[in-house]
Amino acid sequence: MEDVDGTNGALEYYPGSHKFPTYVNEHMGVCSATQHKPTAHYARYLSLWQQLIRKAGIAPVTFHARKGQALIWASNLLHGGSKQTDPTRTRWSQVTHYYFENCVYYTPVVSDPAFGQTHYRQIKDASTGFVQPNIYSGVEVEHAVIERSMPDAFEPYARPKLPPYFDSAVYLQLNPDVAAANADPAAHYLEHGCREGRRWKFL
């Protein structure tokens, strides 16, 4: 979108920090379920990360991206925006999160499984807009389980629906593998086709 330099809040990251051990509230001696503000202990994580960085002797690197460049990194890489020193510049950027399929998506810093509190994330497929199911060992976490775990933050899943004028015969014609599998076209579209971006009508 535009060149980035040291004045408009460039990305700063710590090489190799994605290899640090993963710490959760249990390691920090914190039970967020009993706190008035679930993230009140976040400063403890910041302090821990600073200590890990000093012990590893890692120096921060600033990414001065040129227009059109992109950076791909592991989610556990410690990173953040540097200070913006020129208020006339923008800090617009596009950040895309990629997730593995068939996983449980949750936020550890505000989760306490022993108290029955898991902060499930509602990850939407950018191609369909549908919330992806949380899958644990091949089994989908039930809707009721998620509601019990986070009743104040829960929003209903956006369940797929058949498009207007969906024609089963056309869907099978456009997706011969579905026809060869003798699968029900409507059920296949709702279960797989919508997430896979399959065609259901002639262009």
Describe the structure.
The protein has 203 residues and is an alpha+beta fold. Among the domains are: 11-81, no CATH class; 160-203, no CATH class. The chain contains 6 helices and 5 strands, in the order E-H-H-E-E-E-E-H-H-H-H. The protein has a 3-stranded antiparallel beta sheet with strand order 2-1-3, with no helix packed on it. Strand 4 and strand 5 (139-140) form a beta hairpin. The longest helix has 15 residues, at 42-56. The model has no long low-confidence stretch (mean pLDDT 88).
User: How would you classify the helix and strand content by structural class?
Assistant: alpha+beta
Spatial extent as radius of gyration: 22 Å
Q: Given the C-alpha coordinates, what overall shape results?
A: extended
The amount of helix comes to: 10-25%
Strands in their spatial order, largest beta sheet = 2-1-3
Mean of all residue-level pLDDT scores: 88
From N to C, what is the helix and strand string? EHHEEEEHHHH
**Uncertain regions spanning at least 5 consecutive residues:** none
Measured between the Cα atoms of the first and last residue, the distance is 32 Å
Number of helices: 6
User: How many strands in all?
Assistant: 5
Strand composition percent? 5-15%
Mind describing the biggest β-sheet?
Answer: 3 strands, antiparallel
